[in-house]
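Discussion board: Methods & Data

I've been asked by a reviewer to show the raw model output for two of the constructs in my manuscript, not just the figures. I'm not sure how much to include, so I'm pasting the format here to get opinions. Each protein appears as its amino acid sequence followed by a line of discrete structure tokens. Is this the kind of thing reviewers expect to see in a supplement, or should I convert it first? Here is construct A:
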Amino acid sequence: VQLVESGGGLVQPGGSLRLSCAASGFTFSTYVMNWYRQAPGKERELVAGITSAGSSPYYAESVKGRFTISRDNAKNTVYLQMNSLKPEDTAVYLCNAVGFTSRHWGQGTQVSVSS
């Protein structure tokens, strides 16, 4: 089982990034997919989630209207489009897969928002 995140980096406030999480080793299309983030000294936070069919997206209040989660079951990939980034969005962003009997995590990708 692998979840590999990519797309992180350093961006100025107001900028955009698109994160990707490529999955392998399990039946991706049957899993709920989530993006979490963890900033230094803070607890891990659920940022966004999407059902196996790609419906009913969930967003934390802090990112509503700025972030969009989507998935491509044909490519076994989930995305997080992040717009209007703020310094407080700085964190390691982790991909998470939740199935009926198992849960998987990626290693994370660093997002830094700074001028």
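Construct B, same format:
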Amino acid sequence: QVQLVVTGGGSVQAGESLRLSCEASERASSTYAMGWFRQAPGKGREFVAHWRSNNEDTYYGASVKGRFTISRDNAKNAVYLEMTSLTPEDTALYYCNFRIFTPRRDYWGRGLQVTVSS
């Protein structure tokens, strides 16, 4: 069972920045990804970004590309989400995700509230 410890989030004005952190208790022996999803009130869960272990590449959702950056600290088995140029549309609960692709398993951290006011 992978445990995820998350920190960050908060309330900011539009245009400001925030950083989220997620540290995993273990790694997977097969390809896995660490990243973030978010869920705004009344909406479904949306992919934000993740890092993949097989190629160490990063992937972004269309709505955050160019504004958010995900980075990886291998020593800490952690990922960080730097969110810049925040808008009210970024307001959501942000969930850290640890995904093992084969067999498919998802682990989730507790949600972090991000609130952006105009």
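Answer (T.O., handling editor elsewhere):
This is acceptable in a supplement if you add a one-line summary per construct. For B, something like: The chain is about 0% helix and 55% strand.
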